[in-house]
Amino acid sequence: MKRNRIAVFASGNGTNAEEIFKYFRNHKYIKVCGVLTNNPAANVINRAANHQLPCHIFDRKTFSDKEKMQSILNEWEVDAVVLAGFLWLIPGYLIKQYPERIINIHPALLPRFGGKGMYGMRVHQAVIDSGEKESGITIHQVNEEYDKGKIIFQAKCAVTPQDTAETLAGKIHDLEHRFYPKIIEQWLMQ
Ligand code: GAR
Measured in angstroms, how far is the CA atom of residue 87 from the centroid of ligand 1? Predict the structure, then answer.
């Protein structure tokens, strides 16, 4: 069995990243080799350090520089990329370098409530504002458009009249933590 080395891209708190670090810590075939973030203040940097994982912080200029980004990923010998609350659009050169090997989690039931600018609490507020009775998570492959790649997995939760964007975010995070590491594992091992 080929060993799968994954890089985690994240922009914020990193609770999903943390679940991924823990799930794969002693995995026989899948290894998290490092974290990449665009946000120097992201808590995911501390989480990576606590797990003794290397972390690269990059700005827009570096992110658009194919050679620089590829040299980091090649140095870590990355086979697949996992997005965990990463907010920038993935550039075409990365999609080409990792064809069908980039996965994302979105905190709603795509194809609704996705697209540019739809992330985190904005998604939950939009779901509440439109009076939805259910929401959920979508795990999908990444292509060159926001939230448009092939859907791999969805799970649902109820939205009640009492829910606020904050309480809904809590339910969605529970689903994400429960399913994302397992679905990544199935996706890589298939
Ligand atoms: C997660 O809910 C993830 O689905 C969402 O950002 C949150 C990150 O939380 N991603 C998007 O909205 C992407 N469009 P975390 O930093 O605690 O893992």
Answer: 8
For residues 17 and 113, give the distance between their C-alpha atoms in angstroms, rounded to a whole number: 22
Ligand 1 contact via 14 beta carbon (within 6 Å): yes
Given this model, what pLDDT does residue 3 score?
Answer: 75
- The yes-or-no verdict on residue 96 having pLDDT over 70 is yes
pLDDT tens digit sequence for 32-85: 999 999 999 999 999 999 999 999 999 999 999 999 999 999 999 999 999 999
CATH topology (fold) of 4-189: Rossmann fold (3.40.50)
51 labelled catalytic: no
Sign of CA dihedral 54, 182, 185, 120: negative
- Whether pTM exceeds 0.85: yes
Q: Mind listing the pLDDT tens digit for each residue in 12-22? A: 999 999 999 99
C-alpha 84 to ligand 1 mean position (Å): 6
CA separation for the pair 167, 155 (Å, rounded): 17
Domains of the chain, residue spans:
4-189
Per-residue burial over 175-189, b = 16 or more CB atoms within 10 Å of its CB, e = otherwise: bbbebbbebbbebbe
Atom of ligand 1 nearest to the CA of 147: 14
